[in-house]
Amino acid sequence: MITMAIREIRTYPDPVLRKRTDPVRSINGEIQKLIDDMVETMHAAPGVGLAANQVGVPLQVTVIDLSTRDDESLRHPLVVLINPEIIAAEGSITEEEGCLSIPECSEKVKRALKVTVKALDRTGKPFELTADGLMAKALQHEIDHLNGLLFIDRLSPLKKDFYKRKYRKTALQKA
Ligand code: NI
Prior knowledge:
The protein is α+β, with helices and mostly antiparallel strands. The protein has 3 helices and 7 strands, in the order H-E-E-E-E-E-E-E-H-H. The protein is globular, with a radius of gyration of 16 Å. The termini are far apart.
């Protein structure tokens, strides 16, 4: 029987978000379960992308689903990326961005306009994906997660400091 489960999304400043994740060496049943759970967790949130360390698993796995976008030009079927790596990037664009791990926060972030990513799919088959628009933004955001980076790290030092203080305070209040 296959059962999926919604996993807890870790939020900043959880240290698991700050560690560089490890490559997946064997795509076994545990990884398949992780992928299914990540997709379910992302849909339930709801969000358009999720990295494994956001559910506390320090492995290079991410899922992105732009299949239900209203704007047809931004639509893209669900992609599962294992051990993804950006192999080409061009142009730049600054757009609003948010993150399930940093609730109630969105800021303009500068990213490459177009990227090419190489990765393995969930069967272990290598593939390359070239994208611009929302997909390019999502790929860069999720691959940043896998490298222990959050979008606030790409803001000006002043703004980054603001968020650090804000969330440190929230974490202390919760503790
Ligand atoms: Ni995020």
